[in-house]
Amino acid sequence: MTDLDPFEKNIIRELQRDASLTTAELAERVGLSPSPCWRRIDRLERDGYIKGRVAVVDRRKVGLHAHIFAQVKLNAHGRANLDEFSNAIAAFPEVLGAYVLMGNMDFMLRIVAKDIDAYEAFFFDKLSKLPGVQEINSTVALSEIKSTNELPIL
Question: How far is it, in rounded angstroms, from Cα 7 to Cα 14?
Fold first, then answer.
């Protein structure tokens, strides 16, 4: 972050809030003219600060009512093949996030499904059948208090 100037930090903040802004709108919000603003955005994208721009979709509106967090423990053979497990879960569209953990469990997965029955099918037909899986602990989220992709850019 030390190589970002205040304008670039503001650009990132604003794009996190609304990635649909035009360059002119963004330039006005951050206090630049459009050309220098565009050059900064281009640099931020080339240098990997901005990895992409997406629409944030309400999962319930598209019929994904179940939100589950699953902790997965691999057996010794599974731990030796972390890449194999990682690649397998990366291919599942139901898995929105996957994190390697330190502690008793090896992975934390954030999963969405149409409903609990759909998650049960995913659990038994896909997740539990992956090689090396020893244990899965699933926790169903009842409600969502906060969900953001906006990073605190200081």
Answer: 10
Tell the residue number behind the tokens 């890449």, with chain if given. 83
115: tokens are 């409903």
For residue range 52-70, list pLDDT tens digits in order. 999 999 999 999 999 999 9
CA atoms 130, 93, 58, 115: torsion sign: negative
pLDDT in tens, 16-58: 999 999 999 999 999 999 999 999 999 999 999 999 999 999 9
CA of residue 21 relative to chain centroid, distance: 22
Say what the pTM is.
0.86
Could you give the C-alpha distances from 63 to 31, 49, 67, 112, 142, in angstroms and in order?
A: 41, 32, 11, 10, 16
Q: How would you class 11 by CB atoms within 10 Å of its CB: exposed for 0-12, middle for 13-18, buried for 19 or more?
A: buried
